[in-house]
Amino acid sequence: MSRGLNKVMIIGHLGREPEMRYTPSGRPVTTFSVATSRSWNTVDGERHQETEWFNIVAWGNLAEICKQYLTKGQQVYIEGRLQTRKWEDKEGNKHSSVEIVANEMMMLGERREAGSTNHATPDEAESSEMTSTDEDEFPF
User: Between 20 and which of 30, 47, 56, 118 could a Cys-Cys bridge form, CB atoms 3.0 to 4.6 Å apart?
Assistant: First the structure.
C-alpha cells in the first residue's frame, strides 16, 4: 500500500492572540491565525503584495505552550498538516474550513525581555522549538 504525505511549513506573524479551550475530556486546544505575505513585480515593473491567512490548531502540551508564549504580531514558524473540518449550522447550511494542525512551533524574530507578561524568559526562549505528539480530538 502506498503512503501519502500531508505536511505544511509556514513562517508568518500571528494575527490575533491565541485562544485556549478544553475539550469535554479536559484536553487543551489552542487556536490562532498566522499571516504570510509574498510580493512580486509584474512584467510592467508594478509591485504587488498578497497576504494569505492560515487558521492554526495546536493540541495538548503544544497548545499550552502556544497560549503561554505567543502574542499577536509575533513571527512564528509552524509545521503540521492540513485538515478540513466540516460542520452544519443551526439553519442546516454546510460549512467547511481548512486549518493547519500544528505539531511543531518555533518562535522567531527578536527575543522578548525577561519579566514581560506572556513571554518566554531568556532561558526558556533558547528552547523555543516545541512539538506535539498528541492525537486529535474535536473540541466542538
Answer: 30
Q: State how far the Cα of 22 lies from the Cα of 108, in Å rounded to an integer.
A: 27
In a domain, 139, yes or no: no
* Residue 140 counted as domain residue: no
pLDDT at 16 over 70: yes
138 in any annotated domain: no
3-state secondary structure of 125: helix
Residue 102 · residue 134 · CB < 8 Å: no
Q: Residue 25's domain is classified under what CATH number?
A: 2.40.50.140
The answer to whether the predicted template modeling score (pTM) of the entire model surpasses 0.85 is: no
| Closest CA relative to residue 66, chosen from 116, 124, 93, 106 | 106
Structural domain containing residue 26:
8-131
SS3 label, residue 111: coil
CA atoms of 107 and 78, how far apart (whole Å)? 9
